[in-house]
């Protein structure tokens, strides 16, 4: 049975609204202390949203960009799976699985990579940019594998097209049995986490595939992106998604790519 495009869009919109908790609370803001948040801080938190109940913290512009990227790779027949490194409660990956389900696509998987116990403590000697990062102390960022799987179940989207990679990226990603990748969504905050993801995954990204950097504007993440791109002579323009995030696409033709200039 062929499902109408309109019905697919309706399902995917509802899925986004649910994952982001938009139906019940707009701009839901997390208060670490439980006390009311001062207006100035409130503005800051809106663009660095740490929600209380939503299953993803990426917000609407980044969720829409993920949606557009998936539509593009399907339309342009860019081969490969979808992966997110750094999934927290799993919302972005749940959306990816929902997308494949809606389009009745069976030959792509969603890879869900996380420690499922929060961020690693900084390895300042190897990665000086991470030196002062304290996110590893945050219990809020620790979401267990069982909790993430339970979240998938809530949407009826946990099945054998979802693969979990549990552990630090440096241990799981190099040997992960992933073939081609169409979309790599990196959301691990740190220099180390970003560099480990790029090093292990970039060569698997198909021509035309997307590399999405959620945390680009973090002082830990940005240098990792620039170092990796420089070391690998990647000149594709970085495309802005929102004030926090960027993406680029792997060139279909490497010769053309080298003629391009860095956009940011
Ligand atoms: C900001 S959250 C991800 C938000 C998520 N993408 C969403 O849709 O809401 C960062 C996640 O990265 C994970 N993480 C960061 N660095 C990691 C590493 N080196 N290895 C494994 N997991 C890591 C943390 O456990 C955490 O779940």
Q: How is this structure best described in words?
A:
A hairpin with a 5-residue loop joins strand 6 and strand 7 (246-249). This protein folds into 2 domains: 5-19 and 55-259, Vaccinia Virus protein VP39 (Rossmann fold, 3-Layer(aba) Sandwich); 21-54, no CATH class. The protein has helices at residues 5-19, 39-47, 59-75, 91-102, 145-154, 169-172, 191-201, 221-231, 254-259, and strands spanning 81-85, 110-114, 162-166, 181-186, 205-213, 239-240, 246-249. The chain is globular. The chain is built from 9 helices and 7 strands; from the N terminus they run αααβαβαβαβαβαββα. A 7-stranded mixed β-sheet has the order 3-2-1-4-5-7-6, with helices on both faces. It has 264 residues and is α/β, with parallel strands linked by helices. Bound molecules: S-adenosylmethionine (SAM). S-adenosylmethionine binds at residues 56-58, 84, 86-88, 91-92, 114-115, 118-120, 141, 143, 168-169, 187-190, 192-193. Residues 56-58, 84, 86-88, 91-92, 114-115, 118-120, 141, 143, 168-169, 187-190, 192-193 line the site of S-adenosylmethionine (SAM).
Topology:
Elements: H1 5-19, H2 39-47, H3 59-75, E1 81-85, H4 91-102, E2 110-114, H5 145-154, E3 162-166, H6 169-172, E4 181-186, H7 191-201, E5 205-213, H8 221-231, E6 239-240, E7 246-249, H9 254-259
Parallel strand pairs: 1-2, 1-4, 2-3, 4-5
Antiparallel strand pairs: 5-7, 6-7
Helix pairs in contact: 1-4, 3-4, 7-8
The chain binds S-adenosylmethionine (SAM).
Q: Indicate the proportion of strand residues.
A: 5-15%
Rg over alpha carbons:
18 Å
Helix- and strand-based class?
alpha/beta
- Ligands in the structure? S-adenosylmethionine
Strand order of the largest sheet: 3-2-1-4-5-7-6
Tally of DSSP helical segments: 9
What name is given to the CATH topology of the largest domain? Answer: Rossmann fold
Overall pLDDT metric: 90
Report the order of strands and helices.
Answer: HHHEHEHEHEHEHEEH
CATH class bucket of the largest domain: Alpha Beta
């Amino acid at each position: 049975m062929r499902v109408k495009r309109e019905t697919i869009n309706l399902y995917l919109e509802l899925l986004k609204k649910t994952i982001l908790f938009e139906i019940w609370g707009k701009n839901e803001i997390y208060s670490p202390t439980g006390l009311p948040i001062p207006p100035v801080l409130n503005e800051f938190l809106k663009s660095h949203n740490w929600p209380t109940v939503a299953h993803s913290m990426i917000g609407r512009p980044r969720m829409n960009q993920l949606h557009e990227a998936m539509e593009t790779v399907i339309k342009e027949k860019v081969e490969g799976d979808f992966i997110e490194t750094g999934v927290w409660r799993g919302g972005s990956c749940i959306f990816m699985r929902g997308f494949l389900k809606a389009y009745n696509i069976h030959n792509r998987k969603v890879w869900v990579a996380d420690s499922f116990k929060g961020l690693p403590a900084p390895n300042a000697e190897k990665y000086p940019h991470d030196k002062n990062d304290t996110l590893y102390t945050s219990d809020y960022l620790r979401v267990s594998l069982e909790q993430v799987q339970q979240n998938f179940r809530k949407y009826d989207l946990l099945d054998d097209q979802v693969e979990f990679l549990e552990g630090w990226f440096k241990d799981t990603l190099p040997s992960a049995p992933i073939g081609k990748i169409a979309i790599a969504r990196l959301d691990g905050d740190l220099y180390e986490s970003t560099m480990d993801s790029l090093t292990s995954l970039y060569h698997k990204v198909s021509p035309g595939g997307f590399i999405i950097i959620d945390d680009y504007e973090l002082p830990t993440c940005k240098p990792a992106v620039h170092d990796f791109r420089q070391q690998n002579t990647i000149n594709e323009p970085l495309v802005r998604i929102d004030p926090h995030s960027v993406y680029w696409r792997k060139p279909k033709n490497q010769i053309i790519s080298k003629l391009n200039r860095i956009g940011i």
